[in-house]
Amino acid sequence: MLDVAYEEVVDDLEGQARRLFDFCGLSWDDRCLSFHKTQRPVTTSSNVQVRQPLYRDSVSRWRRFEADLEPLLAELEGCLRPAEAIALGR
């Protein structure tokens, strides 16, 4: 299993995409970096988002719910990897 963090993808799309391709044993294709320029039909409810470049709007959006999530975060604390714990300020 490969862990992929949204924030890392936003910060380094090419590096994270290449890591994913390597993990899956796939050959690299530069078109992955311009995914939003595809002309193929998109029939999902996210079709508008597929046509946009990567954006940062959702980075840390969860923080507005942090106080409500605190009991859950406390329970999960022992399961967090070091990088996750740092990202959560723990």
Radius of gyration: 16 Å
- Shape category: extended
The helix-and-strand class reads mainly alpha
Number of domains: 2
Average pLDDT over all residues:
85
Number of helices: 5
- Helix-strand sequence: HHHHH
What share of residues is helical?
A: 40-55%
Distance between the termini: 25 Å
What fraction of residues sit in β-strands?
A: under 5%
Number of strand elements:
0
Main sheet specs:
none
Low-pLDDT windows of residues: none
Care to describe what's here?
Helices cover 43% and strands 0% of the residues. The radius of gyration is 16 Å and the shape is extended. It folds into two domains: 1-58, no CATH class; 60-90, no CATH class. The longest helix has 12 residues, at 13-24. It is mainly α and 90 residues long. The mean pLDDT is 85. It is built from five helices and no strands.
What brief labels describe this structure?
90 residues, mainly alpha, 2 domains
Structural topology:
Layout: H1 6-11, H2 13-24, H3 47-50, H4 66-76, H5 82-87
Kindly summarize this structure in a few lines.
The chain is an all-alpha fold and 90 residues long. It folds into two domains: 58 residues, no CATH class; 31 residues, no CATH class. Helix content is 43%, strand content 0%.
